[in-house]
Amino acid sequence: MRAKALHYFACALRASFLKSVVPFQPYDPDAETHVHRERLPHWRQWGTTYFITTRLADSVPAKLQAEWQQKRNAWLHVHGVSNGGDLNLLTVEDRQEYHRKFTAKFHEFLDAGHGGCVLAQKANADLVIARLLAGHGKAYQLDAWCVMPNHIHALVEPAEKMTLGEVMRHWKGGSSRDINQRMGRKGSLWQREPFDHIVRSEAQLEHFRRYVADNPGKARLRTGYVVGRGSEVTVRAHAL
User: Which residue ranges run through the membrane (predicted)?
Assistant: First the structure.
């Protein structure tokens, strides 16, 4: 009975996420695009929607990350791409294999619940949500989002003349100050560099919406998460 109820809930939640919130504009290969790199490549194009994953600094143990990085670099070398190279140099099939082997694996690390998982605390999650919603409809349009115990996912379209970097600084810098003050701690809360991806098509937008909606279930969480769409909190699961 419980399994049927959870299945119904998951289907209903997914359906609500598929309703459009972001005034979607896909990536235009003919329009001006800026690419910069830190450890990851970051593509920027005005008017587009981004899928964002940003994680807490202690969310992936150093040993796991080093092993993942070593395997990733070896795979890229075999496929003719330097460690810091452009994944778009890969064929479509190789790029899909890369994401199956490495992007999906890294998200598994996050869903395993490593680190202090301070976002599982309702008060801390609320501080992050306040930052996410503060600029919605003004500085950016927020679509599907999820606050997990040690990371967040979001679909966001920055407003005209607002950069994604400015949005992320507001979310991460503001919530870091808020949470550190609440917990009486100092130091970095978030990993410095987020993962971001320009959404290429309507089909990909729906894929990311489903991913956000399904993430708590995929991580087998019963509590310690919040999911939402735009300014609406769709599901809150925190212990009282």
Answer: none
What is the model's pTM?
Answer: 0.82
Task: Report yes or no: 50 and 157 within 8 Å, Cβ to Cβ.
Answer: yes
Angle CA(103)–CA(143)–CA(196) in degrees, nearest 5? 30
Q: What distance lies between CA 123 and its chain's CA centroid?
A: 20
Structure tokens at 27: 């990536």
Residue 230: the pLDDT is: 94
Q: Which residues in 129-165 are b (16+ Cβ under 10 Å) and which e?
A: bebbbebbeebbbbbbbbbbbbbbbbbbbbeeebebe
The residue with tokens 């800026």 is: 34
- Does residue 152 sit in the same domain as residue 224? yes
What percent of the chain is predicted at pLDDT more than 90? Answer: 58
Whether residues 49 and 66 share a domain: the answer is no
- 68 and 139 both lie in a single domain: no
pLDDT, one tens digit per residue, over 36-89 is: 666 666 666 778 999 999 999 999 999 998 999 899 889 988 988 876 566 767
The count of structural domains within the chain is 2
Residue 106 and residue 17 in one domain: no
The domain of 107 spans: 60-112
